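Hi there. Long-time user, first ticket. I'm pasting a complex I've been working with (about 672 residues overall). I'd like to know whether the download I got is complete or cut off, because the file seemed smaller than I expected. Thanks.
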Amino acid sequence: MSRVRRKIAPYLLVLPGGIWLLIFFAVPMFTMLSLSLQEGDIVTGYRFTGHWQTYTEAISAYQTQLVRSLIYGVIATILLIAIAFPMAYWIAFYGGRRKQTYLFLVLLPFFVSFVLRTISWKQILTDEGPLLQPLRDAGLISQAFHILGTPYAVILGLVYNFLPFMVLPIYVALERIDPRVVEAARDLYANPATTFRRVIFPLALPGVFAGVLMTFIPASSDFVNSEVLGSSDTTMIGQVIQTQFLENSDYPTASALSFVLMAVLLVGVFSYARILGTEDVMKVAAR
Amino acid sequence: MTTPQHSAVRARSAPPAGGTPAIEFVGVNKNYLSHGETVPAVKRTDLAIGQGEFFSLLGPSGCGKTTTMRMIAGFEEPTAGKVFLDGNDVTNVSANKRDVNMVFQSYALFPHLNTYQNVAFGLERKKVAKSEISRRVAEILEIVSLTGMEKRSPREMSGGQQQRVALARALVNRPRALLLDEPLGALDLKLRQQMQIELKRIQREVGITFVYVTHDQGEALTMSDRIAVMNAGVIEQLGSPREIYERPASRFVAGFIGTSNIVDGHVDRVEGGLAVLSYTAQDRVVVPAAPSVRQGDRLEVSIRPEKIDMHRGVPPVQATGGSVLSGTVTEVVYHGTSTNYTVATAAGADFTVFDQNASNADDLADRGDRVYLTWAPQHSYMIGD
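Hi, the file is complete. Here it is re-exported in full:
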């Protein structure tokens, strides 16, 4: 009796999550796949016709936004690594007894809603805002200089909003490095720069890898930052999908675009993993 | 045993071989700042370690032995004083520029590199030619019996194997000195004993100065040419294993190294270089005395348990001129090769006595038996404080 129970216990544990995923992930996926192959309109209703041309039409209509989203995502991710790594490094190695406080500070903005935080950036970056107005008054920038509505503002918003997702995994990886291993590198004639390049950075790679996964995907499919901080020149694919779904009620196009985005991101992430040699990365992570 | 013990200890404080010491400390001390308070880790220390010596820093945790070693490696800077390597002042030279290498307590292998890459790390930093690197790595891996393990990652190796990689990684650079920080601490007893012999062999083969930090007195005694016994940031005694064991310079050393019986008393008389401490008409301790010892002085005397003969019942002949203490057996512990007795003596101290189980005969005594302990004068040792 108890043996039987022991055997089924793992399945019982996975059951709630499994059911959750089935209902809220698998079923909508299937519905969306079916939607993307339907034809019709909101008034007369949609019927399944297997009309795959929606995909090609959607891609050719919105490829600019799709490519732009990926470029923004890549740039934001690179900037995130550049900003988050030193932060995580400093907290992990120089944070001392205040480490927890610093980590809390990194997470603090999360206590305010995503949209609200982005809107407050709009207040800061606006032409009459506390950043540009003084600079313009001082004659340091021209009347025509704007940040709001440019790709810079959108990427800035993405970087700001996803920063903790990059800092935390890198911090965890750095924190796990045995300080004696770092000393061993110094002992074996490595100067600080070489120690970083040959020992600390490789050991932190699993954290960077996790951080990239956690930021590149949501940043590329984000629909808030461009909406609030951007203009029609910065429209991202997430906004297009949202508009098609909620405003135009063009469900097939919206669904098809969602699948295209998902496919592109999956291919991107897998080739990234291949190039970086996930296997080695995972080996280090599992030590 | 006619040499006065103090000069004997001092004579061995200098390294045995002449020439420039491999490592030298001159007036080194090290303080740490902890919660705004200065805590001395190593107090004013002078030390010279000879070329090719197997030198141990022995002491309990927190005695300053690891700090001493880290100052040699360059991980800690002395608060005052100077550190010399081969006669060169390296006090302000950083760790990566010092020609010494360290074997860390937990090995500290690079987890993302395999055995070969780990061992080659130092040589690569020194910009040694690739062919030379592969030749020297192969050579050192053979010495530590790890040939064929080049592709293994640290995770795929046993503790003993990781230990050898750590050793090879340091030795391959042919450093001026190899520093070993409790390198065998994580291994089980059998493997530890095996590695002790192996380390000794390797040291003979490569002829490099080894500085060995340990809290295990047995390990220090078996492996070292000389031992520095440290306590509370001070070297209490520096000498060969035999000197340290036979003639401990302080009560701490006597207690830390092996088992010691320590008894104190007032000098009754001094005759022929021997001081006699009397407790009763026949209970007395005879000890070779320093010239300064006078009648009435209070002395502490240490006697090793294996030097003591135990007699049952019959009081031994007084004429031997040695020490005699009567007592009662309070504990008998059988250890296979020997039996250990605890005896409450007339001198007031409990004595431990080791008796070799050379024959199949029964134990010498049982609990509660009245016994007499005797030993020759030269086996008593005056602890100089």
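A couple of notes from our side: The longest strand of chain B covers residues 37-49. Chain B has two domains: 7-255, 259-382.
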